[in-house]
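re the bet — no i am not wrong, look at it urself. input seq straight from the record:
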Amino acid sequence: METLSLDLYDIQGNIMKNYAESGFIKARYLFFKIINGSEGRCFIKGVLGYITSAAPWTGGAEGSAGVPWPTATTNIAFTYNGLKTLGISVQTLQSFPDEFIIGMRGRRSILGDNGSSDPEHWDPVFHKDIHIFISIEGPTEKAVEDRYNKIMEVIAEHHIKGVELLDGHRAEKGEADKPYQDASALYEDGLPTAKEHFGYTDGISNPFFKGMTAEMGELAGGGKKNNKGTLGYGNPELDSTWLPLETGEFILGHMDEAQEYPVGPMPPLMAKNGSFLAYRKLHENVGKFNAYLDKTAENFPGGKELLAAKFVGRWRNGVPLTTFPNETEANALSKQRHAAVAAITLATTDEDKIRAQEAFRLINKKFQAFDYNQDINGGRCPVGAHARRANPRGALEFGHEKAFDTPSAVDNRRRLIRRGLPYGLAVDPSSNDGNHGTIIMTIHASIKRQFEFVLQQWINYGNDFKLANDKDPLCGNHAEIEGKGDGRMVLQAGKVTDAPPYFLSDMPRFVETRGGEYFFIPSLTALRMIADKIVDPT
């Protein structure tokens, strides 16, 4: 099979790499407002040297391809109004997709941001004019702080008054709002985990597409099912049942699954190797979740942890329920992954880090290299479980595997790259108060076809799963009246289990939106064009 070579030095690193898997488990997210376009371009020129590309981290040894392992990563993206303020021409601005132009707040009805998730309840910063987004990730708080200081020094050293760091990120009760959003992996027994505040291991599976290298992800489970009997990705050693997705599903200027080029801005050089990002700050109602789980588990025959696994489709340790229905086996596998995550963080040399990553990928493959072909009816993993709704893995064909012979198979066109980390601490497991949750960033070539579709049709509606209007149990925007939710879920019986179906009801809203926005991630080439004001739509 034909492979694709990408210019990894031109693509921003957060598109191709999940930094957390390299031990970059601390983060700081910054929003800026551009008051003066000329000074805004000066600021971009000043931070260009800090932007992390997708070039491989090889330690920078003489004669090796790649760059030294960074002390911290930095990536940048822009809103529509940010590009407008920077002086991008009207022709180029009008060539962007409508959903990006309108912005996340304007698309709230499509995204289900109502009730307690309505923009009126968002953090104050999201009520301001956000133009630039800069993300910083590092292995330690000091590494992140040092890079943050370097970014802010650009403003001071160049006497830039036309770029303002926006405050208004919600802090703990009684504290002043912050000028940035901190995020971090959660810790257990002094070691970092991949868990979020409900106790689930998160961010396990990401798409694998043409042009990615082995250290960037896992083909099996990350790609698309291959039912044509050909070898995967031109390499007989790779799993022949999986093929990489087309690059254009995630990066502009390349062919997508429909054998078309995704809609991007003009001129083509502005779009090529860029992508779109959806940023969401999600508050987790830990008290509501724990109370509902405890109460419902009293009558559930499988016990509390099995019930929690049914909500998501994975045990809370991240092991997929459809292939590991036994909790003991799942726990044993989870311990191996937990140790592998810790080994990456504790590695001190570039060589040790690379070896630790390789060991982690071998274990992580078991967490994502699966489908639902042997569990179509949902007897193990419910059809409406969160992980199955967000990435159906062909299950929407309900057993008709030949549907994958067409390049437009529905779920191949809805895949999302996931980035982000938890924020805050849920100190009281019985309380919903506090400032804690997850920063979720999704990256894709089409905001509308991928991010918005998944949220509107699969998370907040159930018809594609033959579940009428039942919503995602964990992330659905369940309505609440007088403290009682309207969320429902069916735990199906099936051929692989003797258990009867089980019905859940009265689910409250467990996750609330606290803010968000749409951004364009330009290539390094486009970033220089923006900084030099040489974007010519003709």
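see?? Confidence is low (pLDDT under 50) at residues 229-239. told u. also The radius of gyration is 22 Å. so pay up
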